[in-house]
Each structure stands twice: as structure tokens, then as C-alpha cells.
Amino acid sequence: MVRPPRRPAELVGKMFFAREVVHLGLLTRNDLRSSAWRQLFHNVYADARLEISHVMRARAAASWLFPPGCAIAGRSAVALLGGPQPRPDEPVEVLVEPSARFGPVAGLRIHVANWREGEVFRVDRAPVTTPVRTCWDLACWLDVVEAVAHIDALLRRGVTDHAELTAYQRRRGAERGVRRFAEALQLVDGGAESLPESRLRVRLIRAGLPRPVTQHVISRQGRFVARVDLAWPDRKVAVEYDGLWHHDAEQFHRDRRRLNQILGDDWLVLHVTAKRMAEDFDGVLTEIRTALATRRPR
To answer: What radius of gyration do the chain's Cα atoms show?
Structure first.
């Protein structure tokens, strides 16, 4: 008969440092190999019944792995600042000062660089790069489309703003990375409601299209009719990004009804799906470019 794995009440629903619980006699190293526990990092475990998020993994890493001179950074910092989270299994991004000599560690993506005083603060006791420093790192580490999408998310959360980022750019002077940061700042827009919408907007602009208005409100005789993801109001052309929400039948019908209401006002609404973004962006670009070219400014 197979014995059920040991589940001390003190560890149920918790993350913990293996060395500590073994020292206290709550578990043995052999117990940790059972199906009751899930390894997150070396010596860091969790109750296997917990639904682990990227933020939880980041906090666990900061609690039990980081020496002084380390901070959660990049997309992981965006998540702790209230923005979108990477997948739970994606590496936690860490900014490490050269003097810390930390890593490599499985499950962490380590970036070695100095930070200035005031560029790291505490979020729920975890060291995290400030919003401004996070935006700088995103611009330096990611391609411009991904960087802008995540900076957009922070702007939308209100944890920083364009003026603060511009002032930070000036303080950086001619340092390495300033050009990438400046390029990102020219493209950011806190009106974007999702990463895919931001990615679509930036790719369209970089392809030479006029800059669209984000979350444009369409009204009729002063009354709200609809709000569209991207719009060129002078030509009455709108673009809607259709993400995974279309699996929700009620949401699908609500959105289609909303968009149908603006057709009587001579708006042209184009739809872009995740599949087409990934596999047929040139086709999407051609359709939008044609729509804009055939519409006279109003």
C-alpha cells in the first residue's frame, strides 16, 4: 500500500525554503521528492496544489535567493508594479550589481548592471526597480515593439508618465542605451489597453502608417456610441484587435453590436486577429493602408 505524502499543516498552501524546513524537521529531503511539493528554484519549493503565478515566483526568488545588490527587474518588475504578468514558467528577470556576483541560477534571467540611488524600492518587501528604471531596462533589453508594449502598460497603470520618463532620459545624457530609450518614448501611448494592441500600433507606425488614436470614442450628437482600439478619426477608419476574448460568445456579440452601431456614420472598421498578426501582418498592413488611402480626410 502506497503511503500518502507528508503534508505538515505549517506548509499547506505555502512556498518555503527547503533547507529551513528540513532543519526544523518538518520534511526530509526524500519528502520533497513526493508529489505533494513542487520545486520553484534550487532549495525553493511550494505546495503542489498552489496555482503558481509569475509574481509569486518572483517574490519567492527575492525572499530566499537574492543576496544584497539584486532587484526584480524588466518584465517581472512590470508584473509586480501591477502590469501584465509573463507566463508562470518564464524566467524571473533580475538586475544584479557587478559587485554582487550572483548567478547563474536556473529559473532566473540575470542582467548585470549598476543602478543609481533611488532606482530600486520595495514592493511587498521585495526589491524591485522603480517604474522609471524599469522602463529604461525594458528599452535596453527588449526589441522596441515589446519594450513599448510594456512601457504602455506602466503608463496606463499611472505608476509613471511621459514627462517623468523624458526627464530621466535627459539625466542619462549620452549614456549607452539612451538612443533605444528615446526611440521607445517616441512610440509609447498609455491609452493602449493590452500588450497585443500596443504591439499592433507600434508595428503599424514603424511600417510608415500615420499614428493612430488609441481608444478613440465615437459619439453621435454628443452621445457615446462606441470606443475603438485604434482610429484615424479624420478618415473614419478604425481597427479592432480581436484577442482570445472571442471565445466568450456574449462578449463577442456585445462587441459586434457595438461596432455595427457606428457603420451608419460611415466608419470603416477592420479587424485584426492574433493569428493574422503572427502569420499575415503584411496582409493586415496592406488592408489598413488601402483603407486609409481610399478615404478622404473629413
So the answer is: 24
